[in-house]
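Can anyone check this?
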Amino acid sequence: MFLYRQHGSNSFRRYWDMFPARIDIAATAIPEDFRAESLSNIMYSQAQYLLVDGHYLMGGKMLLAAFALKPRLSMISQTTGAALRRVFRSKRKAN
C-alpha cells in the first residue's frame, strides 16, 4: 500500500543517515522513564532494516543491543519468524 514512498532517495533506504538523529532525539527529548524503551525501539527497527538488506551480523548485533536495553520476547519471536518466512520463500522460488 505504501510502497510508492519507498524509493532510493527516501529515508526508508538511507536508514544509516537517519540513525544518529533518531538516537539524538530519543536521548534528549524523551523522558528518562521511557528512554531505554525508546532507544530499544530505534535499535530494533535499525536491526530490521539491516537484516532485510542482508547485513546479518550487524543486524544481529543491533537486535541484541535492543534486547539488552528493553528485553521483550515479541522482539525475538517476530524477527525469527520473519527470517524463517524469508528463508522458506527463497527456497520455494529456487525449486
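Reply from J.R.: I decoded it. The helical segments are 15-29, 32-52, 56-69, 73-94.
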